[in-house]
Amino acid sequence: MRQVKVLLASLLVLSLIVCMFAACAKQAEPASEPQTTQTTPSTPSTPSTQTPADEPEAPPADEPLEIDDIIMYYFDLRMIGADQGPRIVDAINEYIGPKYGLNVSIDYFVIGEWLTKVQLAIGSGERVDLMQLGAGSDVVTLQSKGMLMDISEYVDEYAPEALELMDKYMDSYRMNGGLYGFPTFRGYVTNQYIIMRKDILEELGMVELAENMSSWSEYEQILQAVHDNYTDSQNLWAVSKNSGWSCVPNGLWNGDKFTDSYTWDTLLDPTSQVLTDNQGNVSWVMDDPRHEEKYARVATWAEKGYIWPDSSLVDTHGDELMKQGISFSMLDRSEYGIEAVKGNNCGHEVICPKYQDGLIVTDSLTGWGCGVPTTAEEPEAACKMINVLYTDAYVMNLLTRGIEGEDYTLVDGEVVYGDEPHYYEADFLIGNNTLLYPLQGQGADYFEQIKKINDEAQLGTYMGFTLDRSNVELIIGNLTAVNDQYSKTLGTGGYTPELYAEYKSKLLDAGVQDYLADIQNQLTAFLASR
Q: Residues 439-445: what's their mean pLDDT?
């Protein structure tokens, strides 16, 4: 393993002088470190308010902290940890040793290793004290396999600030009476947007209409203008498919206004068949007339020549279609900051009116987090480290951004990397992301806005419910096959009443009613237990 360890065992044979010397040596901190403190969870500190300061106060020389060693598994999404990780871990340990009494050895796993080696290691009894959760080794998967420890008895003492900060969201990691980790504190809210090229809107004189759009009829007014002025002359189509195979709006609609939408907790349904209300009832979304109506609406777009005809035939992402000049707009979902993300991906400045607010549901939280495997030898220290990851900005920026001055520079509060940054990891993997410095172009208040959106968002009615697929795996496979057969055509304007009825009939044959009944039973049991 790639382990970076410093052993400070209290050996009786060492004299007090040697112990004091070792403690003093470890208390030396880089002069450029920002002063970080454990903040109250209700208002976690954000990097935009941090400035370089003197090193954090170390424990008195005659009272050195006892060091607890932990082994941590980390998903190396950027595939850079093996080469650059050791110096980052050195910097982390130089800081957390004297401050928290911790020393961490981080094993970085790239995607192929993560999917094949991590669960095998835990299943074979290999020691792992703390691990990132996600990418096939998420909390639901590992808890169902008995690979995660119930940390309920440790968190009040060893991770109190993290627990208070995340209290609103912790039900998503509580299962069968136990607590199996912490969700990453990141942007949870995925809203639905219409993405449109700003240059075309400017030429049409429709920027103001786009920026203040509040209804589907207003969007259709713009689609018609694009069709009339660009489709025949420049072969620019008004709308194309998104990142999937659909031009169809998300949600259900009671009218023309965006505010007329209804969104619901899908209970982690992978087949898109579940519709829930707020009274504990599960029904079939295909039976709701509003569901069929939205397919019929998109079919009129195709009839009027708005939709790119090849939308159902190619795998090309909607971002790329806009970049290539094939399409003017698409419907897609995103977290906060969609204009910057889509503008970069599409190669054009974009205007993105929101047409539906998202919910924070269990699935929003269980994708990424951290937990303590059942093979941990230091669960107390692991929970201490969890607390650090949710309260200490200096550690989070080291682990995610790298070392300031070596891997990046700060310009107006934003991280600026060189052409080939030495170390950088994805910022949604672990810990409290609102402690991070934002990336260049995100805006100095980016993570403050993420926190504000999370705080104001509506929680799903069934937070903490996790779908047990064990009894319905075969049905899920059958339903997925039917979806694959019909979704491309229906999603890109090919709806007819006859085709929709045929689709429903195939889903019935595939066992959708038994599937929904099983989920209803699970939800009823969940509500009874809660």
A: 87
pLDDT tens figures, 368-402: 999 999 999 999 999 999 999 999 999 999 999 99
pTM of the model: 0.72
What would the pLDDT profile of 275-302 be if each residue is shown by its tens digit? 999 999 999 999 999 999 999 999 999 9
Per-domain residue ranges for the chain?
A: 57-187+364-456
Neighbours of 321 (CB within 10 A): 23
Residue 263, SS3 per DSSP: coil
139 contacts: CB under 8 Å, gap ≥ 6 = 133, 148, 172, 173, 175, 180, 181, 183, 366, 369, 371
Angle at 412 between CA 406 and CA 418, to 5 degrees: 35
State the first-to-last Cα distance of the chain, in angstroms, to the nearest integer.
42
Burial 86-97 (b: 16+ CB within 10 A, else e): ebbbebbbbbbb
Name the CATH superfamily housing domain 57-187+364-456.
Periplasmic binding protein-like II (3.40.190.10)
CB 464 within 8 A of CB 351: no
